[in-house]
Amino acid sequence: MRKFGLRQLAMLAPTQGLLILIIALPSLYVFWLSFTESSYGKAPTFIGWDNYAAIWNDRYFWRALVNTLIVINVIVYGELVLAFLLASVFAKGVPFRKTLLAIVLMPYAISEVVAVVIWKFLLDPNVGSFAKAMAAAGLPDINWATNPTHGLGLVSVVSIWLHLPFTFILIYAAMLAVPKELYESATIDGASGWQSFRFVTLPGVMPAIFVALIFRYILAFRLFSEVWLLTGGGPARTTEVLAIYLYKQSFTYASFGKGSATGWVMVMISGAIAAIYLRLLYSRGFKQDA
Amino acid sequence: MARIDRRQFVAGGLAGAAVAASAGRASAQSKTKLTIISHRVHQQTATEGPGGDVTKAWTDQNNATLEWVTLDLNAIHDRIFREAGLGSSDVAIDFVLNTRAVPEIMGLFEPIEPFMAKAPIEEFDDISQGMVKAFSSKGQRYGVPFRHAVNALHYNDTFLKERGFDRPPQVIDELLDYARKLTYTRPDGLKVHGWGFQADNYSDVVKLARAYGGDFITDDYKCVADSQGMVKALTLLKTMYAEGLIPKNITAMKQNDLITAMQTGQIAMTYFPFGRTVLFNDPKSSKFPGAFKLALPIVSKDMLAKGEVIASAEFWSMMIPKNSKNKELAWSLIRELSTKENTIREAVNGNGPVRGSAYADPRLIQMVPYAALEAKAIKAARVPMPAFNKAAEAKDVFIEEMQAAMLGLQEPEVSAKNMQKRIQPMLPA
């Protein structure tokens, strides 16, 4: 292994410096802000842990946390299952593979705002073509604007639709990388289809699954635009998620201290979730290669 | 055909970008850009309509261009205050709503006194001094009023006639019956809802409560949301929603969605500022041009007998952020937008004029058919909620409790009590 010296350090320094400048320092500033009372046109005043205590005692924070945890689990695991199924189909071979791949990847190229507005319009109960088609087919209405379960359900569907390509491409690439010889050996040894999947495919794609889970958990935890543009957190604040709660505290109520405290709580929770999966990734995925 | 290789493509791209950048610089050097953060309605009434572009002469004379950053009601103020909190900003003028003009934020803006001393606004006393006072703090004035938004009842007369009505509802007891009859499917398949309102705001519901004799927050900062009037208003909304007289997705409809719903005939009646009738009747964007008419907001029987009027008004003022790089030019534009002549032209474009003299102007009387009705409404107009530091939080509590009552998640009495209990501690002592 090459020696890590001053030269290497100097080459890394610009990147590290940039990371310190745009991530570490603002994060520390926000951390300090979380211990202050601060608003527009008002100098911050140190108030200790009061903001954290206020959040802890705020039922809207807990509701937003529960909504977030439910929705991100539906999104992340829904995406994983769909991506796995799609990748399996593609790995076995499909006609017009390139065209179908382009179709599957397309949502990732669409802006979140545009995508949400399109879905909102399609499911508008008064004029939406999806809503009208569902009514014509005798299907029940989706009252996404007034029923919190329907609202969060639609948020999950839109989010899965938007981000499925990310999980799919990771798993598909991993599936293609599993050596064909392993399947041939399994067949010679008399393994059934399920056994080939369980003992050849799954271990081969597991690291990719953990990587997808970590990234999607962290990104989904910041879920904002889907909820903000569809329901705005309503009706009656029942579909609020943590990022909306943070936004309201910071910019609608101009309570920067509480907003900052919420931000740090979010960092801690998503960090804890990521740590669990990183541990799993290390112990089951990469350990043998380390 | 000659083939372009990768190097040529990259070189061409860079050359193109350099030309575009230098052209942009040249253009920027020749004209000064002023950024304005406002609602779309401000840009519209200042630059479009029968009154023409009010800003044109000024931009020509000052060799300037205007960049209007227009956003929805809540987003405007989030953006304004965030920009104003920065070290410096390109934003020259902010349009701020009266309920957001709380003492806490005044420090982010320039007082207008020094500008007035150097270059006063034409006949400033003609501008509503009540509105000027609302944008004052500690003896300093911070805003120049631009627009008032006094609400009227807008109704689609074609629908009313189709359903056998020869006049709009006048008293609150009629509203439910009107909404029921006006909720129907037309022969062309268009589903019409009898009533629509801004369910992400408090103003329309406060008007209903006032028509029932109730209120929300008094001018001396007493929360009276648990009054019978408010309970009745919430009960009315609950009934309307349960019977499908209001669009199902009303809680997710923003102001612009409501405007579209009116223009496309999905809603028969709603409250909006007077000037919106121009938009509702615009042949370019409305399916029913000429069908929309105006009436004074609905009142109680007693009030109608006494000739009393309920009108809620909110108003917008122009403010110069302290961190603005171009304050003198910003003031110059504010002066231009506030002249007597331009106030009339903006009113003709659909603005609510803030000068008392505007309503006596023969051009306004001739070109704005609702001028007399609006003048009557503005005399009686009150803000739906006075400004205070926690106004944004109080608004959210109101919306939350109102929506919960309307959707049947809790009884209207419970919602009204919750509003009272939660909002009273937020008010100034």
Automatic annotation (TrEMBL), chain A:
Residues 65-277 form the ABC transmembrane type-1 domain. SUPFAM superfamilies: MetI-like (SSF161098). Coiled coil: none annotated. The keyword Transport applies. Keywords: Cell membrane, Membrane, Transmembrane, Transmembrane helix, Transport. It is found in: Cell membrane. The chain crosses the membrane at residues 12-32, 60-87, 99-122, 160-178, 199-219, 261-282. It is a multi-pass membrane protein. Belongs to the binding-protein-dependent transport system permease family. This is Sugar ABC transporter permease. It comes from Alsobacter ponti.
Automatic annotation (TrEMBL), chain B:
It comes from the Bacteria. InterPro entries: Bact_solute-bd_prot1, SBP, TAT_signal. It is found in: Periplasm. Pfam families: SBP_bac_1 (PF01547). Keywords: Periplasm. Gene3D superfamilies: Periplasmic binding protein-like II. Belongs to the bacterial solute-binding protein 1 family. This is Extracellular solute-binding protein. It comes from Alsobacter ponti.
